[in-house]
Each structure stands twice: as structure tokens, then as C-alpha cells.
Amino acid sequence: MTVIAIDGPSGVGKSSVSKAVATQLGYAYLDTGAMYRAMGWLCMTRGVTDPGDVVELVRGADLEISTDPAAPAVAVDGIDVTEEIRSTEVSASVQVVSAVPEARSELIEMQRQIIAAASPGIVVEGRDITTVVAPDAPVRILMTADDEVRVARRAKETHGRADAEAVAATRDVTLGRDAKDAKTTSFLTAADGVRTLDTTHIDFNQSVGAVLELVAAAQKA
């Protein structure tokens, strides 16, 4: 079973590229960020912010996530939250979960179980996959891009446009979350053995091609 681990901050193209790579290879796909978003949504709707309460909520939640790259879906306690977790409000609530080590440990264990059950392979994307969740993956990639490019991409994804107003509304949430998450996990600099893919000046198809080339090289090694 082959594991392709992809890390990086918001707006580098992790999700779209990972899904495309998984589809082309016939692999499963796991968006670990969606798991944090789902738990952030749950904390937000329940009004939970205390770290201890966050851990208990995460432990007791029934979190279901699809690994089909063609049909991504997330449900919490039987409620489909696939669309809701992409809102700016939920983005601002993710830190409530990601900043709590015990809550992260619960989600990491769940992620490892999903990875172990995947066949013939899986593309896993997030912020600590190459270093914590799957440090022994044969293919480990850190995707990066310039901040302004990332914010514009995120604005288009969230608001459907990347004009000055949308970019301004997106900048603080995007860069702010990156800065906060960087305190608990390393995803801005490649660890030893992790390949860096800068997507600032390349398009989607080129990004997918670059990842597939790295996978092919690893399989030949």
C-alpha cells in the first residue's frame, strides 16, 4: 500500500491537486483538514471553547469522512456538514481544536486508522502528514506558494471571486490561521526527506504532473 503525504498552508492547491492525483492513480483520498474543520464546526455550534471540553467533544463525536476523491463528504453525528465546514466562520473556529494537543492526538489516531485501511494506496493532505501522521510515507511533499497568491486563491474558493474586497476579507483568516497552527505543527518548512513543490508560478495541471512525477520516481527507487 502506497501513502502519498502532502502538507502545506492554505491556498497552495493541496486539496484540488491531491484529489486529482488520487483519481489518476486509483487511490483513496483523505482531507485531514476537513476533519479539523468538522470538529471546529461542532465546537462552534455547541459553544465549546475550553480545551478539556474540546477533547471530550472530539472523543465522543461520530465523525465520518469519505475517502472517495470524486465524492468528498463529511458528517458529524449523522449531520452532513460537507458544505458548512468551508465557511469563514468555521475557518476561524478550527484553531479551537487544532491548538489542543489531546484533540489533535484523537484525530491523528483516526487518520492513521483510515490510512491503514486504504488499498491500493491513499493520498493524504493536511499540515502535519509528512512529519507526524505518516512520517514513513514513501512520498512526502510540502506544497508552498507566495502569501498573496495563496490568499487570492483562498478568496476565490471561499467567495467565488478574488477582487480586492474578497481578498481583504480572506487575508486575516488565512494568514492568521497559518501563524497560529505553526505554533503546534511544522508545515511551512520541509523536514528532512520531504520534497518542496512551489506552486506560485505553475497552474493546476502542472502541479498535478509534478506530484505524479515524484510518485513515479519513488516507485522506481
UniProtKB/TrEMBL annotation:
Q: Name one Pfam family in it.
A: Cytidylate_kin
The chain positions of domain Cytidylate kinase read: 4-215
Subcellular location as annotated: Cytoplasm
Q: Which GO terms describe its biological process?
A: pyrimidine nucleotide metabolic process
Any GO CC annotation of this UniProt entry: cytoplasm
What this protein catalyses is: dCMP + ATP = dCDP + ADP; CMP + ATP = CDP + ADP
Superkingdom to which the source organism belongs:
Bacteria
Does the record carry ATP-binding as a key word?
yes
* Keyword Transferase recorded: yes
Q: Which GO terms describe its molecular function?
A: ATP binding; dCMP kinase activity
**Enzyme nomenclature, EC number:** 2.7.4.25
Q: Which UniProt keywords apply?
A: ATP-binding, Cytoplasm, Kinase, Nucleotide-binding, Transferase
Binding of ATP occurs at: G8, P9, S10, G11, V12, G13, K14, S15, S16
Family according to the record: Belongs to the cytidylate kinase family. Type 1 subfamily.
**What's the protein here called?**
Cytidylate kinase
Show the taxonomic lineage. Bacteria, Bacillati, Actinomycetota, Actinomycetes, Micrococcales
**Which gene name does the record give?**
cmk
